[in-house]
Design a protein that fits this description.
single chain; alpha/beta; five-stranded parallel sheet; two-stranded antiparallel sheet; 4 helices; globular
C-alpha cells in the first residue's frame, strides 16, 4: 500500500494512493468506557476502523500521527473540553461531529455550524452521521 502526505493539509493527514481501498478511519473520542466500547463495536461492525481515545492529549496525538477520515467527539473529556482537537481537525479538513449531551447553545460560536448528535443517541443516528461525514470527506 502506498501512502503519501497530503500537501493541501496540515501534517496530520495521510492518504492512500488512488485506487487503494482502506476502511475509513474514525477517530472516536469518548471518556465513558462502556459507551466507548459500544461505539467501537458498532462502528467496527459497520466496516470502519476505529481509533479511540478517552483523553484530549491522546486524541491530539492520534490526530497528529494517524490518518483520520472522520471523527466523533464527546465535548467533555474528564473535565477537559475537546475544542483544541476540533480546531486541529478543522485545520486538517477532517469532518467531525460532536456526540454529546451538551446542547448547541453551549458550543463556542466557532462551532455552531458543526454537526451535533445529542446523547442519548441511537445506533442508526451514529451510523448515518459517520456515513454522511465519510461521503463529504471523499474526493469528488
Amino acid at each position: 500500500m502506498t501512502l503519501s502526505l497530503r500537501t493541501d493539509a496540515a501534517p496530520c493527514a495521510l492518504v492512500c494512493a488512488p485506487g487503494v481501498f482502506m476502511k475509513p478511519n474514525v477517530l472516536m473520542v469518548e471518556d465513558e468506557a462502556y459507551l466507548a466500547m459500544a461505539l467501537e463495536d458498532l462502528l467496527t461492525d459497520a466496516g470502519y476502523h476505529v481509533l479511540g481515545a478517552a483523553r484530549l492529549s491522546d486524541a491530539l496525538e492520534i490526530a497528529n500521527q494517524e490518518h483520520v477520515d472522520v471523527a466523533l467527539l464527546d465535548i467533555n473529556l474528564h473535565g477537559e473540553k475537546v475544542f483544541p482537537l476540533a480546531n486541529r481537525l478543522r485545520e486538517c479538513g477532517v469532518p467531525f461531529a460532536f456526540a454529546t449531551a451538551y446542547s448547541r447553545d453551549t458550543l463556542p460560536e466557532d462551532f455552531h455550524d458543526c454537526e451535533l448528535v445529542r446523547k442519548p443517541y441511537t445506533s442508526e443516528r451514529i451510523i448515518e452521521t459517520v456515513e454522511s461525514m465519510v461521503e463529504r470527506a471523499r474526493p469528488h
